[in-house]
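Sample entry (212 residues):
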Amino acid sequence: MDVFESIVSRQSVRTYDKKDVPNELIGQMLEAAVHAPSAGNIQPWEFIVVKDKNTKKELAIASLRQKHIEEASVVIVVCANLEKSSDRYGERGKNLYCIQDTAAAIENMLLVATSLDLGTCWNGAFEENKVKSILNIPDKLMPVALITVGFPLPYAKPTKTMRKPFENITYSEKYGRIFEWIEGKTIEWRFKVRPLEEHIKKLKEKINTKKR
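Predicted structure, serialized as tokens:
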């Protein structure tokens, strides 16, 4: 699966098979994460891999009782090291850069997981202090997201949500000025000059193959 296929096929999965996710696959996700860009190459991300059933249950309760957090095979808690970013960039590093950096790392993980036929969900709704207490996270770290990981159930796979065309929200030179380049272009140029319909067709074929 190439990068564009991973991008267009990635979606939030909240229903998982009960089988375990091998550590080798988790390792590939984490390897992808640490290759994300970061301000000043500080790499402020840190990760906690959670498989214990009781811990996942506690995390689910701390996450507004989102059941899929308890039911996922793995929960990867992504933290931002506030001290690393603030030491170099002050308040902007603490309040912005480290969040941007960890978000980039998370997206790398999600895309690699998709290429490995894993289902993931990026969860940001949780009580931060409770999560820190459950996992013994020090004050210098801030949990940014809980990433659930598991093998998706084919029959319960969610429908891909529609996205706004980028040309509707992109401007040229200044805000509000039409991005003229796109005018007159067809869908053929997208995704390495391969039609989006071709990607969708391939995804449908892949899903049908799995169902068999």
